[in-house]
Design goal:
With 578 residues, the protein is mostly beta strands. The protein has three domains: 10-143, TIM Barrel; 179-301, Jelly Rolls, CATH 2.60.120; 427-576, Jelly Rolls. Helix content is 7%, strand content 36%. It contains four helices and 36 strands. It has a six-stranded antiparallel beta sheet, with no helix packed on it. Strands 28, 29, 31, 32, 34 and 35 form a six-stranded antiparallel beta sheet that branches. The termini are far apart.
Length: 578
C-alpha cells in the first residue's frame, strides 16, 4: 500500500497445508497441479463462500541437477484447466512463462536437490519467450470461454536468435591466486557468520607432520575441493553426505585448503535454515583442526573487478591434455555483428558460473539435464562482448560457443562423480514393525502416530498392497515427526534402500519421496510386484513419534499406486533381503 499499489493480499498453500497457513485477515487460495474438484472441496472447508482460486496451477515442474528433465501431461493439464473454467474459478498458471533463475537465485529441494538455472518448466511459453504447442492448445481452450466482446490477440513473433562459433579464451585468472585478505578464526565460520550471501569460501590451515589419518568435517555445504600443498586430493558433495577422506602421511607440515562452493538454499520447510560453507568440528584423526584462515569469495562485481588475468595457454595439439586443471576464471571476447537471444553451449565445461558483460547468467553443471545457458539478446551488443566463465574443476579446453536452441534434457550420469552414491539395494530394517495400518483412500495428507516413541537411525515404509489393486506403489511425500509432534529436519537424510524405482518412463526415483514436493513422486518399477518398500537413513539416531504420508496427487484415475496396507519400521540395523 505504501508503495502505491492497491491490490488484495492472499495466502496460497497446498491442499494439505490449507489450515496450517490460514489467517483470518488474508483471503485463502489453494495450490495444486491436478484434481481441481478435490482441491476446491478442501478450500471450501475454510472458505465456505466467496470466489474459488488456484494460486499456483502447475503445467510442469522445475528441474534439479542430476535428475531427468520434467515434462507435464498436456492432456491432463488442459482437462484440469477446463474444469476450472467451467466452475468459473480463478487460477494463476505457475509457470505460464518458464524463465531463468539468473545469478545466485536458484533454490533447492530437501534434503538437498539443487535447482538448475533454467526454469524452463514445460510451460506454455518457453524460457526464451517462444510459444509452444502447449501455448496454442491453451489459447484454443480459452477461446471457447471468452466473455461477450472479448478477443484473444495474436502472440508476438519470436525474437531474433543468433549463434557464435567456438572462441578460445584470451585470459585465465586462477581462483586460488586471486584471494582477498584473510579473516582468522579458531574454527571455521559459515557464510552467514562471514556476512556473505553467496559464492564460495576458501578455508586454510596447516597440518603438522604425522602419519596417515582421516580428515572429517561435520558437513560441507555444498560442493568442496580439498587441496594439500596445492594438489587436489578429495572432493565432497552435499548430495552424497560423505564428508571424510583419508590423507597420506606427511614428513613435514603441509598446507590444507578446502574450497567450498555454496549453491541454492533449501527453499521451504524447517530446512530453510540452510547454513553454507564448512561446518565444524573438523578433525584429522582424533584431533580437531584449529586456527583457520578464511577467504570470502562472493563472486560479485567487485570480486570480478579485482581479478588479475594472465595470458591463456594456446590450444593444445590433438591428443595432448589441456593445461587448465585448477579452479579459475576464463575470459573470452566475442565479436558480434548483430545481437539476439542465444544459448551458451556448456557441454565441454565442468561446473561453475558464467557472466556476460558483467551480468551473472547463473550456474552450469555438465551432469545435466541443463547443458546450455540462456543469454537474453538485450544483454549483448554489436561489437565486442566479454564473457567470463568460472570453472571450479578446470577440466576443459577453454573454448566457448553458442547454439540457437537450448539443450535441457541431457543427463550425463557418468560425469556425476561427486554425488554418486552406492547402488540402492534391497535392504530392510531389522526388528519388528513399529506400526501397521491402512491408509485411507484419496490424496489427503495422512498423519500416523506410533503407540509409543521409537528410536533408531533407519525408517522404512513397506507397502503391502494398493487401493487400485495394481502392482505399483507410489509416494507423493514422506516426512517424520518427533514424539512431541514437531517435524524432524531432513537435512541428514538419504535413501539407502528401495524395492524398485521407475526412472525411465516416469522420472519417479526414490529421492522424490523425501524432497518435500508433491508435484513429483516415487513410483515402483514396472517389472516388480508387492511388497514394495523404501528405506531412509536419518543420518543419526533419532526418536520418532510417527510420520506423515502424502499420497501421489491427482484424481483416483491419475494417482497410480496409492498405498493401502502398510507397515512402518524403525531400527538401528539393516539387513540385505535375499
Amino acid at each position: 500500500m505504501d508503495a502505491g499499489f492497491d491490490v488484495p493480499l492472499f495466502a496460497c498453500n497446498p491442499v494439505w497445508h490449507l489450515r496450517n497457513g490460514y489467517r483470518k485477515d488474508l483471503f485463502p487460495v489453494v495450490n495444486f497441479g491436478s484434481d481441481p474438484d478435490g482441491a476446491f472441496k478442501k478450500l471450501r472447508e475454510i472458505l465456505p463462500k466467496g470466489p474459488l482460486m488456484c494460486g499456483e496451477f502447475y503445467p510442469g515442474w522445475f528441474d534439479t541437477w542430476g535428475q531427468p528433465h520434467h515434462r507435464g501431461n498436456v492432456e491432463k493439464y488442459l482437462r484440469d484447466l477446463e474444469t476450472m473454467l467451467k466452475m468459473n474459478a480463478s487460477f494463476s498458471i505457475y509457470m505460464a512463462h518458464g524463465g531463468t533463475s539468473f545469478g545466485f537465485t536458484t533454490g533447492a529441494d530437501r534434503p538437498f536437490k539443487p535447482d538448475t538455472s533454467s526454469y524452463d518448466y514445460d510451460a506454455p511459453i518457453s524460457e526464451a519467450g517462444w510459444t509452444t504447442d502447449k501455448f496454442f492448445k491453451t489459447r484454443e481452450l480459452f477461446a471457447r470461454y471468452l466473455q461477450p466482446g472479448e478477443t484473444i490477440p495474436e502472440p508476438p513473433a519470436a525474437l531474433q536468435v543468433i549463434a557464435f562459433t567456438p572462441t578460445r579464451s584470451n585470459g585465465f585468472a586462477p581462483l586460488l591466486a586471486n584471494l582477498p585478505a584473510a579473516r582468522r578464526a579458531e574454527r571455521p565460520l559459515n557464510l552467514e557468520k562471514l556476512d556473505q550471501a553467496h559464492g564460495a569460501v576458501l578455508y586454510r590451515t596447516t597440518l603438522p607432520a604425522g602419519p596417515e589419518a582421516v580428515f572429517e568435517a561435520e558437513a560441507v555445504h555444498d560442493i568442496g575441493q580439498l587441496f594439500l600443498d596445492g594438489v587436489r586430493v578429495a572432493t565432497f558433495d552435499r548430495r552424497s553426505r560423505v564428508f571424510l577422506t583419508k590423507l597420506p602421511a606427511r614428513e613435514k607440515p603441509a598446507v590444507l585448503e578446502l574450497l567450498v562452493e555454496a549453491m541454492g538454499r533449501v527453499n521451504f520447510g524447517i530446512e530453510i535454515h540452510d547454513r553454507k560453507g564448512l561446518q565444524g568440528p573438523v578433525r584429522l584423526g582424533d584431533a580437531e583442526l584449529l586456527n583457520w584462515e578464511i577467504f570470502s569469495l562472493p563472486l560479485d562485481s567487485a570480486h570480478l573487478a579485482r581479478l588479475a588475468f594472465q595470458p591463456a595457454s594456446p590450444a593444445p595439439a590433438a591428443g595432448v591434455p589441456h593445461s587448465f586443471s585448477r579452479p579459475g576464471f576464463h575470459r573470452f571476447e566475442v565479436e558480434l555483428k548483430s545481437v539476439g537471444d542465444t544459448f551458451l553451449d556448456l557441454r565441454p565445461w565442468g561446473k561453475g558460473m558464467v557472466w556476460v558483460n558483467g551480468r551473472n547468467l547463473g550456474y552450469y553443471w555438465n551432469i545435466g539435464p541443463q547443458q546450455t545457458m540462456f543469454v537474453p539478446g538485450p544483454w549483448l551488443k554489436p561489437g565486442r562482448n566479454e564473457f567470463i566463465v568460472l570453472d571450479y574443476f578446470g577440466d576443459t579446453d577453454a573454448e566457448l560457443s553458442s547454439l540457437e536452441k537450448p539443450i535441457l534434457d541431457v543427463l550425463r550420469p557418468e560425469l556425476d562423480l561427486l554425488g554418486r552414491k552406492a547402488e540402492l539395494k534391497p535392504l530392510r530394517v531389522v526388528g519388528a514393525a513399529a506400526h501397521r495400518g491402512v491408509f485411507a483412500q484419496g490424496g489427503e495428507s495422512q498423519p500416523i502416530t506410533f503407540a509409543a516413541p521409537v528410536k533408531g537411525r533407519y525408517f522404512a515404509l513397506e507397502a503391502l498392497d494398493a487401493h487400485d489393486g495394481g502392482a505399483f506403489a507410489s509416494i507423493g511425500d514422506l516426512s517424520l515427526v518427533r514424539p512431541d509432534g514437531k517435524p524432524l529436519s531432513s537435512q541428514l537424510w538419504s535413501i539407502v534402500g528401495v524395492s524398485s524405482q521407475e526412472t525411465v518412463a516416469d522420472a519417479a526415483g526414490a529421492g522424490n519421496a523425501i524432497d518435500g514436493q508433491i508435484s513429483n513422486h516415487w513410483l515402483s518399477g514396472s517389472k516388480s510386484a508387492y511388497p514394495h518398500w523404501i528405506v531412509i537413513d536419518l543420518g543419526r539416531e533419532e526418536s520418532l513419534g510417527g510420520f506423515i504420508y502424502v499420497p501421489r496427487q491427482g484424481t483416483a484415475a491419475d494417482a497410480l499406486g496409492r498405498i493401502k496396507t502398510f507397515q512402518a519400521f524403525v531400527g538401528s540395523k539393516l539387513e540385505l533381503i535375499p
